[in-house]
Amino acid sequence: MDMSMASQTMANMASSTKAAMSAATSSSSMDMGGMSMGGGSSADACKISMLWNWYTIDSCFLARSWHVRSAGGFAGSCIGVILLVIALEFLRRTQREFDGYLRQLHLPRGSVIEALSGSSSTSDAEHGRQESMPKGNSKIGTRAVMGTSGSAAFFGPPQLRLWQQMVRSGLYMLQFAVGYFIMLLAMYYNGYIIICIFIGAFLGALIFQWDTLHRSL
Predict the structure, then answer these.
(1) DSSP 163
(2) What angle (nearest 5°) sits at the alpha carbon of residue 150, between those of residues 146 and 156?
(3) I want to staple 55 with a disulfide (CB 3.0 to 4.6 A). Which of 48, 59, 139, 211 is the partner?
């Protein structure tokens, strides 16, 4: 009787050990390239990888609520990423336009001229006066106003008001936040999402960077 009880005990221990190993194997669904994350059933699991991947359905981005469950949902996610990058270029263009507006707003009243040496449209006397002016006055942002006597008075950069600088800071904050979210999306190493980021950068530059060439000249 003791022999039968001992054998039964050993059999029970073996079966429980085998069940524990099976449960541990099934619960650890992780490979070398990626992992599945989800608090519920396997249908709610997210496919996340720290290596380059091409996940579409069941991929997750930034939050558990951004769980792609269909091909149409993934296409919408790709379009949203493209629009997010275009929005970043729009914010940068808005920043440049607002800075240009502030420069025009703070110009003193009078006839504004640009002190450009060697201009073909200036007379010899005007060219001589420009050469006699200090070189520091030819920097970008320097303004010249012609008085009644024909002399040019130069002014430094405009002094901004508090609300104007707050608007500029708010635009910069939005650019920083959008750029940070784009960086987080790229860190999922999803090939489709990264390609969409590149497409958004191309379209954003195509739409909103027409003014940068004139500003650089």
Answers:
(1) H
(2) 35
(3) 59
